[in-house]
Task: inverse folding
């Protein structure tokens, strides 16, 4: 397990390793219980019992279950960032091993690799990460409510991550393009998972093609 980084919803950030590990157990328990009982039935007491910590330890970090869900969403975003970066690094290492030109720009479909990484890692977390189907990056609680700020946060993150990979200036135009791409993909992925618990593959394939067609006018 990896310690969670400081989240804005924390009452107190962990300082010692033992405290960070306890916080990780609390968030792991929160994620598991979200899948098992849903958000409405989630309670801080149940989380404490599942995590094997005193209830006071939960309240040391969180004032209520919404704060826990917010912290879980923040951790999801951090783990998603790490997954995308690791995927891009593996791709770069493989390209270097094949004597590919490491200075190649976004042309020749190079940016498709980055876009696929962004979409594929989100889908992987959607399918496997505990609690992710309810919380993801913080835009589904109360249940069924999707707020705009998390998508703005994801778009800013992707602009920061991919501008260097694509050798593009992270200007307002690129930020706007990524925001539109994120909002569009979010809507279609939600549709895919409403139709199929594992994500309707045909809709996902159409989503990928739509993103490529839209982004090609800016990134090619």
Result:
């Amino acid at each position: 397990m990896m310690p969670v980084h400081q989240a804005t919803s924390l009452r107190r950030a962990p300082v010692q390793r033992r405290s960070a590990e306890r916080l990780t157990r609390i968030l792991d328990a929160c994620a598991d219980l979200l899948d098992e009982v849903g958000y409405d039935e989630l309670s801080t007491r149940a989380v404490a019992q599942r995590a094997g910590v005193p209830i006071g330890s939960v309240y040391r970090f969180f004032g209520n279950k919404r704060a826990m869900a917010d912290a879980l969403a923040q951790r999801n975003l951090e783990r998603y960032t790490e997954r995308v970066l690791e995927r891009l690094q593996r791709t770069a290492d493989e390209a270097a091993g094949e004597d590919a030109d490491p200075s190649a720009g976004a042309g020749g479909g190079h940016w498709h690799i980055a876009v696929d990484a962004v979409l594929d890692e989100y889908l992987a977390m959607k399918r496997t990460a505990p609690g992710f189907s309810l919380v993801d990056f913080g835009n589904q609680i109360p249940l069924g409510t999707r707020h705009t700020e998390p998508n703005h946060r994801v778009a800013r993150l992707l602009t920061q991550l991919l501008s260097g990979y694509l050798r593009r200036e992270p200007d307002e135009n690129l930020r706007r393009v990524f925001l539109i791409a994120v909002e569009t993909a979010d809507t279609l992925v939600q549709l895919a998972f409403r139709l199929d618990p594992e994500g309707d593959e045909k809709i996902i394939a159409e989503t990928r093609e739509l993103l490529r067609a839209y982004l090609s006018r800016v990134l090619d």
